[in-house]
Amino acid sequence: MKDHAATEQATDRAELINAVGLHARPSVKLTQLAKTFDCRIEIALSADGPWVDAKSPVKVMRVKAPRGAVLHVRTSGNGARAAVDALMALVRSGFGDAMDQPADVRHG
Amino acid sequence: MVRQMVGDSVNLAYTGGDPGGGLGTGVASIREAIDRAWSEAGVAILVDLGGAETNSEMAVEMLDADRRGRVVVCNAPIVEGAVMAATEASGGSPLETVRRTAEELSPQ
Question: What CATH number does the domain containing B94 carry?
Fold first, then answer.
């Protein structure tokens, strides 16, 4: 039996599908969403890091993640799972931005 | 730009031009802008060239003592600083954190 409660942790990743990637406006949206959670939230372009604080608009913008990059998110603390799910939903929605259809998509 | 990127949750005011209608700023119009942007959390001011900073400092000096401590002039680029400060403020951060986030953009 554990003598202390394990800290809630979660991780996930998603491709940036919006046209501009993690540009200024998407960065602001991501930061604002991250700030609504109590847990520690970090993002990176690789599972090996470097990890940056998702609640810092300056640091998030400096990641300069382009369209097509895979954004990794890891969280720890209260609401860690909910935070990852919310952030991934934002990324997968393309931040509500315009999404150009990739040139290599074939129909039928 | 701040309204588009950050939304409507943060008070925002701007001013420019000297009292004669020329280039520059005026202490009285800066004071009015501080009043428009005021909330209990305080006001972060972003300025461009030279006179705007000294006039802002004079405007802050003229505030009531209890408000003076809750107005800061940020040492940050006006456009980027305003977006970063508003993003930080929209998450409910205290004034000192808002200032620090805006100033993260400046060369150290």
Answer: 3.40.50.510
